[in-house]
Amino acid sequence: MTPDIWPVPAAEDLASMPLESLLTREYQADPARVHERLRAAYGPVAPIELHGVPVWFAFGYDEVRYIMQNPDEFWSKHVGHWRAFTEGRIPADWPLIPLLSADNSGFHDGDRHRGLRGAWIAGLREFQEPGGEHTQKLERAILKYCDDLIGVMTEGAPTGWADLAAQYGRPLPLMVANHLLGVTLDRGEEMIMDQWRLLDGPDAAGAYQRLNTALLELATAKRHRPGHDLPSAMFAAAPALTPEEVARELFMLSGFLDFTGSLICNVILEAVGNPNLRTSVTSGQIEELVNRVALLNPALANLTFRYARTTVKLGRFTIAAGDPVMLSISGAHADPLFASALNRDTVRSTRAHLAWGAGPHRCPSQRLATQMCTIAVRRLLDRFSALTLATPPEQLPWRPSPFVRALRSLPVRFEVNPNAVPVSRPGQATAGQEPPPEETDADGWRPPARSGFWTFLRKLRRAP
Ligand code: HEM
């Protein structure tokens, strides 16, 4: 169905409308309630503000899907189409400016976007081709990282307490980042720590600078000495790209892998918080569980802006050319038009959701991210005979963010399954198996310094 959207002459003055903030404790604790209230008051599109800047919030399923699928006609992702920005009405220190004005594929349209996206698709292909040599190596590496993290978390104790966000879900994708980048794990520890600092601090500004420098050095090294890794495959697919351009694309990995960590935690929450589900989940069903959680509790809840290229009608409003629209995936999934057709009690869920986007900007890494989540959750359920939430679900802390639905911590009590054998301990190659490729790299590139990644993780251990 095509939503109520077409070019029309007159437009609302967004800035003069009553605006609801999304950066509130209420939104952090219960976004669904806020969506419900906004929907009752405004329909599928509402005027909101983020750090004092007015933005349209689209959270009707048809509206969100339609905008995702029709970017070049009516919508742009480039900040140069934002009227308030080009007219100098957005404060230079507005916190979302660095993200929204980034020079990478996520914020370009047309040919520029297609060229960069093509490099991503080609670069990721060999890591997510089902059964492919590098896909299998990556899957073995992920399994080992899971066991490494579980090993540090339990340190031989049969029972205990752990924060599965800080000690498992969040570090795991950052370890996978180093595998994709072709950086040895021990030498890449500082990069892992900097990706973490970038998102949570301390020293986010310093981490930003160091990561930029490290990724540019890495891209330059891979340009001259290619390996079997993402940057080398991106250069091979798009030889005209410069190391600066590839480094800017690779910088996006921190964010995407953070969404992956958040989805892992949201899936774990669903699995451990629902004992019936946990006992009924076989390994073949976990991928289905990942899909179900991506639908019901999407990690990337709201997207960065689209800017109207022309005056358009959207929902009950007329949007002026140059106005920003934020698309809400979680809001769209809760739209009664979509949600009323869902059966929340079944273990099977629809794939017709928007958690991976849609149209020309759709996520090129859906299979890889799904595999990461599936392996992570399956390994956890294999290695622990019991996992129970150590905090009532309604008291779990969520990160304050306009974009992600991500747990700040996920405290659990665990009982180790004595019959499940880890594939290896941190730093050891797996007996009888080829070590994962990041332990054998020979590209000569070295991140600047070693961090205490494992020391940091050990410090997170707590007595039960
Ligand atoms: C659970 C994890 C992930 C989720 C939920 C997710 C979701 C999404 C969504 C919704 C978009 C569309 C954004 C938009 O339309 O504005 C997107 C784009 C993208 N994703 Fe993912 N993603 C995930 C993981 C990853 C990973 C691991 C990678 C890379 C290894 C990745 C690479 C990308 C790229 C490069 C784009 C931009 C595509 C473009 O603009 O053409 N994503 N992702």
TrEMBL record:
It holds the Pfam family p450. InterPro entries: Cyt_P450, Cyt_P450_B, Cyt_P450_sf. Residues 418-450 are annotated as: Disordered. Belongs to the cytochrome P450 family. This is Cytochrome P450. The lineage of its organism: Bacteria, Bacillati, Actinomycetota, Actinomycetes, Streptosporangiales.
